[in-house]
């Protein structure tokens, strides 16, 4: 792995081949599983299997993410400056594969510990897993902006990825809880099973992107500090990061609360799996629709629509005690319709932001953008469990283990349902309002590209093959 410029080659077509799309998309099995499973099960695992107090368990999920704020931008900077016979970012996919799967299995290994010692053990394993995820995910997210310069092709490319995300989230939300059950042995089996899936996906994406085109800028200048400062001056990036963080926090709170909602509101722990089926089902069938809506309404308009559907579904969910389980699942379908669009559009818009920065600055620093993005994304996802844990603690929720179940007070039941309805709805409303201020539309990007070409600058179409050699 060397640092330097990559060799130039002929300009690739605006579209990306089916093989590369599939090869890139398979990496989403890593992205979605590592995001969804800790968000869905790790808090419940600690409070109801390892008898960790709810507030401490929430902190364990959040504190390792402070490390992400340091390591993720570093990984992004390293990947920006890396070129090798495998390409500028692909070697880092292998580095992540060497760390994440083993650490993930350790997180759910069910040690013979309870309380504070168990919290420390899980926290350390989670820290190592987060590091492995950073090594993989930061360069992985930077790649779409460097595969094509076409505004709508980026959405089409990521459509394939989101179909894999839907399948992966289904595995996370349906199969993972079924394997885990309510026992340490079940969680251990689940951890090993999904560690194998993570490893397969990470290696698969490395192999599948071997022929990916590369249209990124040919240099990456300046120190990490100067590039971080430049990123902070990107108004489109800051607005996108803000609205995405608000929406991801809403989803993180909802994920963390799902097992509690199933157990204490629907009185059926197996409903965690069916609720997730209702959530991810729309992702499997609506991606072509969201691509068309992004073309018709522009990505900003489609994003507002998606956030509004999420908001409506979360608001409707509060009436579940009155209308029952079927009603709850229908409300979650509305959330799922919005969630499908949000997941597709936010990453397509991130690729637009990276392309915009490349046009304006002439720099190759997509990894710095995705490093900051992934660090904040991970912190926000973990914060969702922390927020939900705090809501439970405020309601007087009592932690336990399977051998010593407890009766929860009425205030805890109220906290359970408010935590998955009112709180996510409020956060989703904030995201919709911020989306109104985002202005990096197709017309603006096209105007910037025309200005860059007219001025004689190096347009984003300068290319090299992903497998170029070091200059």
Automatic annotation (TrEMBL):
Region Disordered: start-end pairs: 451-471
InterPro entries, sorted: MFS_2, MFS_trans_sf
Pfam families: MFS_2
Transport found in the keyword field: no
Signal sequence interval, chain numbering: none
Regions that span the bilayer: 22-44, 50-71, 92-110, 116-136, 157-180, 192-216, 237-258, 270-290, 302-320, 326-345, 366-391, 411-436
CDD domains with a match to the protein in the record: MFS_MelB_like
Full protein name: MFS transporter
Organism, as annotated: Sphaerimonospora cavernae
The organism's taxonomic lineage, starting at the top: Bacteria, Bacillati, Actinomycetota, Actinomycetes, Streptosporangiales
């Amino acid at each position: 792995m060397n640092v330097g410029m990559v060799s130039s080659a002929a300009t690739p077509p605006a579209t990306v081949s089916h093989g590369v799309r599939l090869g890139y998309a398979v990496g989403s099995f890593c992205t979605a599983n590592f995001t969804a499973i800790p968000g869905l099960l790790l808090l419940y695992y600690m409070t109801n299997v390892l008898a960790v107090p709810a507030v401490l368990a929430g902190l364990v999920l959040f504190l390792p993410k402070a490390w992400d704020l340091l390591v993720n931008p570093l990984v992004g900077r390293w990947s920006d400056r890396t070129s090798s016979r495998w390409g500028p970012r692909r070697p880092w996919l292998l580095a992540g594969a060497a760390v994440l799967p083993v650490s993930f299995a350790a997180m759910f290994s069910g040690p013979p510990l309870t309380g504070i010692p168990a919290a420390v053990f899980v926290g350390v394993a989670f820290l190592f897993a987060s590091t492995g995820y950073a090594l993989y995910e930061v360069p992985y997210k930077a790649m779409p902006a460097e595969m094509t310069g076409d505004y709508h092709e980026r959405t089409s490319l990521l459509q394939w990825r989101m179909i894999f995300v839907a399948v992966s989230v289904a595995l996370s939300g349906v199969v993972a809880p079924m394997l885990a059950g309510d026992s340490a042995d079940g969680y251990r089996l689940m951890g090993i099973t999904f560690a194998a899936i993570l490893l397969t996906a990470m290696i698969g994406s490395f192999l599948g992107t071997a022929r990916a085109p590369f249209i990124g800028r040919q240099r990456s200048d300046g120190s990490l500090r100067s590039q971080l400062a430049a990123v902070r001056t990107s108004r489109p990036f800051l607005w996108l990061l803000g609205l995405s963080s608000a929406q991801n926090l809403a989803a993180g709170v909802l994920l963390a609360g799902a097992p509690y909602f199933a157990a204490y509101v629907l009185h059926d722990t197996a409903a965690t799996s069916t609720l997730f089926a209702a959530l991810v089902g729309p992702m499997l069938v609506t991606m072509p629709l969201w691509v068309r809506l992004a073309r018709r309404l522009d990505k900003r308009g489609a994003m507002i629509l998606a956030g509004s559907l999420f908001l409506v579904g979360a608001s409707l969910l509060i009436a579940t005690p009155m209308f029952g389980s079927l009603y709850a699942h229908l409300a979650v379908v509305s959330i799922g319709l919005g969630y499908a669009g949000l997941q597709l559009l936010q990453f397509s818009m991130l690729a637009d932001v990276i392309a915009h920065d490349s046009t304006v600055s002439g720099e190759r620093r997509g990894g710095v953008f995705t490093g900051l993005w992934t660090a904040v994304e991970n912190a926000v996802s973990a914060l969702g469990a922390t927020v939900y844990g705090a809501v439970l603690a405020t309601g007087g929720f009592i932690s336990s283990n399977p051998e010593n179940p407890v009766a929860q007070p009425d205030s805890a039941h109220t906290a359970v349902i408010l935590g998955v309805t009112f709180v996510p709805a409020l956060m989703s409303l904030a995201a919709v309002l911020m989306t109104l201020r985002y202005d990096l539309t197709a017309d603006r990007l096209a105007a910037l590209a025309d200005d860059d070409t007219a001025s004689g600058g190096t347009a984003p179409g300068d290319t090299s093959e992903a497998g170029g050699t070091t200059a």
